[in-house]
Amino acid sequence: MSTNAPANPHRAPAIAKGDGSMVRVLVVDDEHSLTELLKMALKYEGWDVRTASDGQSAVRIAREFRPDAIVLDIMLPDIDGLEVLSRVRAEGTETPVLFLTAKDSLDDRIAGLTAGGDDYVTKPFSLEEVVARLRGLIRRSTLTLAQAKDPVLVVGDLTLDEDSYEVSRGGTPIELTATEFELLRFLMRNPRRVLSKAQILDRVWSYDFGGKESVVELYISYLRKKIDAGREPMIHTVRGAGYMLKAAG
């Protein structure tokens, strides 16, 4: 299994939910080193990640955390992954589930999918494969359908149409370059969340973490002149941490 977090600068753009909030993923496996690797890789995607090392904890965390996807090992120390899935489904959730297991027989694959799992990855696997499978499950899930149907992002009086590339604030149209648009889109998909320069470089410019952070400062200043000029500011600098966009007032 790969031990490095995905670092492909050409990977697909980040997934965000229709309301702009972070995708939530629960990882369940009794191998601590494995859960830590998966947690690191999924956090790198910009997702909120929780972990559990046994089935009982997984059921409890799923109830409290309400994940958008679950990565679930079949072999657990108390109740197995199939039972965990059964209990989660019994509570009325249709959260997509990706099974992880050392088993690779056809019977085991069929058992997992018959129990209500959505996909199946056999150990050893690459972190990139797990991330790719999860992205597919989340995109297909009903949790992100609202995003697909409504391309308009709204934060306060600021709107951005992902289909027409039109931006306005308070009903006044704002002309942006392609890069300014991508930067604003990333900020609007993560309202009230502090985004580091490294995160912004990676998402907007597809640079790895060695990219020039000064380019972020430059384009933030461009955006401020167009979005905030003469108005109550929406783009805020969080000293030593990054930038955050939130509704004015």
Automatic annotation (TrEMBL):
All copies of domain OmpR/PhoB-type, residue ranges: 150-247
Residue ranges annotated for the Response regulatory domain, each copy included: 24-138
Listed GO CC annotations: cytosol; protein-DNA complex
TM region(s), chain numbering: none
InterPro entries noted in UniProt: CheY-like_superfamily, OmpR/PhoB-type_DNA-bd, Sig_transdc_resp-reg_receiver, WalR-like, WH-like_DNA-bd_sf
PTM-bearing positions, type 4-aspartylphosphate: D73
Protein name per its UniProtKB record: Response regulator transcription factor
